[in-house]
Design brief:
Residues 36-175 form the Molybdopterin cofactor biosynthesis C (MoaC) domain. With 179 residues, the protein is of the alpha+beta class. The protein has four helices and five strands, in the order E-E-H-H-H-E-E-H-E.
Length: 179
């Protein structure tokens, strides 16, 4: 049996993009108490989301990361592990996230002159999207980089004047549907 799969891509909107201001909120009950959305009746579908972000560093630090000369160890390998671990535990840190079956996590680092970019792509087959998992992977991976390089980034006063985590965003969200 052959099935046609159409891929829907949404790069800027949530599943509730067509809600009008008059529509009732999905994550609160009639009393205004927070509640998790029931996705039990939704069919399992293949889903994929990618997120990205950057950590701004000094050129010296980026060079040390590139050359694997940071005293704490391999920065990118450690950040990759942290990102993957964060993806798998998103439901424990974001209160209204469902625990979803992660089928794949891909991490890509791009070293620039004064920044490291991390892109995390998450795949699942389930009832809800995986963009929060991708975002959690990016933010944790970048935090791991900061932790690994903080000795190199501190100034004489113990501050981080050149270090910043920036440009975190969901860049792609896909949901495959059968036709």
């Amino acid at each position: 049996m052959t099935e046609d799969i159409n891929t829907q891509t949404d790069t800027k909107h949530s599943d509730n993009e067509n809600q009008s201001p008059d529509t009732e909120l999905t994550h609160v009950n009639a009393d205004g108490d927070a509640q998790m959305v029931d996705v039990g009746a939704k069919p399992d579908t293949n889903r994929r989301a990618s997120a990205r972000g950057e950590i701004e560093l000094t050129q010296t630090t980026v060079d040390a990361v590139r050359d694997n000369e940071i005293g704490k160890g391999d920065v990118l390998a450690t950040a990759r592990i942290g990102a993957i671990q964060a993806v798998k535990h998103t439901w424990e840190t974001i209160p209204m996230c469902h625990q979803i079956p992660i089928t794949n996590v891909d991490t890509v680092f791009d070293l620039h002159e004064t920044a490291v970019e991390l892109r995390v792509t998450v795949e699942t087959t389930g009832k809800t999207g995986c963009e929060m998992e991708a975002l959690e992977g990016v933010t944790t991976g970048l935090n791991v980089i900061w932790d690994m390089v903080k000795a190199a980034e501190k100034d004489d006063a113990g501050q981080y004047p050149k270090t910043a985590i920036t440009n975190i965003e969901v860049v792609n969200k896909q949901k495959q549907t059968e036709t």
